[in-house]
C-alpha cells in the first residue's frame, strides 16, 4: 500500500540520533556513485522556473527520487519559492511505497549530515554553536548538533534582526541558552562550531575571525555563484565534503577559491564515506580549524526516507490501497 507522510509525520518519525546513524550507515556502505542532481528550465518567460531531480538507490533494497521545483516569482503570489516531494519505491519490485513531504525530509537530513560530520570534525568539548541564517534548515541545526556534542549555548545571526530574535526565542523554548547577536565577527571568535545555512552570494564568515579549534559547517550555498566563507577561511582550514562529485561541481565556497588560484581541489581531506568507513581520519588536533562543505546528496534523502517508512507506522499516516 502507498503511504503518505506529512510534514508533521516526518518531524515525528525522524529523531536526530537515529537519523544520524542511518546516514552514517549509508555513507559507510558506499557503493556505486549516485547521479548529481539534474536541473531543468521549466519556466514561462519572463518568469523563471526550475525542476530538479535527485534519484538514489540501494540495489535490491530501496530506490527513490526527490522532485523539487524552484519558482522565484512565487513571492508575488504569497507562496514559497521551493516545493518538493519524495517518492520511495521498493527495491525488489519497483512498486511505490510512500509519498513524503519533501521540505521536512530535506531539513532534517541536511541538519543530520552536518551533525554527522561534526562528530568527526568538531572538538569533543564543543559547547557554543553559532548559527548564521534564520531559515528552516538553520532552525534544525542546533538540535542535530546537540545529538553529537554537548551544545549548551546558541548564538543566532541573521540579516534581519527580528528573524534572528524569533529563532533565538524558539531555541530557548527547546532548552538552549540562545541569544540573537548583531556582531558577527565577535560571535565567530566565541564559537566552537559555526553552522551557516544561507543563500548568500558574498562571504559572511571571514577567515581572519576564525580562532584555532573552530569547526566551520557550510550548509547553505549550493551553486558555484554562492558562498558563505571567504578564501582565507578555506586556506586556513582542513577541508572536508559530503561527496567529492557534488562539492567540486556545485560548491561556490570551494570553486571560487580554486578559480582565484587560492586553493586546490586536491586539498580536500576526505568525504563522508571516507570518514564513516575509517578510510581517512577527521580532526587531528584541538588546535586546527576544520571546514565541512555540503551541497546535499540524494543518498541522504534515501536513507532518511527508508528509516521513516521502515519504522513503526505513525498513527496519522494515510494509506492508499
UniProtKB/TrEMBL annotation:
Stored Pfam families: OCD_Mu_crystall (PF02423)
Highest taxon of the lineage: Bacteria
Alphabetized InterPro entries for the sequence: NAD(P)-bd_dom_sf, ODC_Mu_crystall, ODC_N
GO annotations of cellular component type: cytoplasm
GO molecular function, one term: oxidoreductase activity
GO biological processes: carboxylic acid metabolic process
Stated family: Belongs to the ornithine cyclodeaminase/mu-crystallin family.
The protein's name in its UniProt record: Ornithine cyclodeaminase
Source organism of this protein record: Chelatococcus asaccharovorans
Amino acid at each position: 500500500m502507498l503511504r503518505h507522510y506529512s510534514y508533521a509525520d516526518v518531524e515525528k518519525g525522524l529523531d536526530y540520533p537515529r537519523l544520524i546513524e542511518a546516514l552514517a550507515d549509508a555513507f559507510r556502505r558506499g557503493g556505486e556513485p549516485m547521479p548529481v542532481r539534474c536541473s531543468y528550465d521549466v519556466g514561462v518567460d519572463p518568469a523563471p522556473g526550475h525542476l530538479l531531480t535527485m534519484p538514489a538507490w540501494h540495489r535490491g533494497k530501496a530506490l527513490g527520487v526527490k522532485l523539487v521545483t524552484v519558482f522565484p516569482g512565487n513571492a508575488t503570489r504569497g507562496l514559497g519559492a521551493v516545493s518538493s516531494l519524495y517518492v520511495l519505491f521498493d527495491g525488489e519490485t519497483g512498486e511505490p511505497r510512500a509519498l513524503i513531504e519533501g521540505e521536512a525530509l530535506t531539513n532534517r537530513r541536511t541538519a543530520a549530515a552536518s551533525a554527522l560530520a561534526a562528530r568527526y570534525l568538531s572538538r569533543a568539548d564543543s559547547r557554543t554553536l553559532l548559527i548564521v541564517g534564520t531559515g528552516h534548515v538553520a532552525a534544525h541545526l542546533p538540535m542535530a548538533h546537540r545529538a553529537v556534542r554537548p551544545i549548551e549555548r546558541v548564538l543566532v545571526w541573521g540579516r534581519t534582526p527580528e528573524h534572528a530574535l524569533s529563532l533565538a526565542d524558539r531555541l530557548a523554548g527547546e532548552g538552549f541558552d540562545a541569544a540573537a547577536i548583531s556582531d558577527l565577527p565577535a560571535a565567530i571568535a566565541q564559537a566552537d562550531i559555526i553552522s551557516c545555512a544561507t543563500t548568500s552570494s558574498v562571504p559572511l564568515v571571514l577567515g581572519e575571525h576564525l580562532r584555532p579549534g573552530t569547526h566551520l559547517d557550510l550548509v547553505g550555498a549550493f551553486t558555484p555563484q554562492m558562498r558563505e566563507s571567504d578564501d582565507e577561511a578555506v586556506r586556513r582550514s582542513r577541508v572536508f565534503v559530503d561527496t567529492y562529485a557534488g562539492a567540486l561541481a556545485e560548491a561556490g565556497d570551494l570553486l571560487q577559491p580554486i578559480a582565484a588560484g587560492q586553493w586546490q581541489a586536491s586539498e580536500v581531506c576526505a568525504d563522508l564515506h571516507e570518514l564513516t568507513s575509517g578510510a581517512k581520519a577527521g580532526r587531528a588536533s584541538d588546535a586546527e580549524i576544520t571546514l565541512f562543505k555540503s551541497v546535499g546528496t540524494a543518498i541522504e534523502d534515501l536513507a532518511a526516507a527508508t528509516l521513516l517508512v521502515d519504522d513503526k507506522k505513525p498513527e496519522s499516516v494515510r494509506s492508499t490501497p
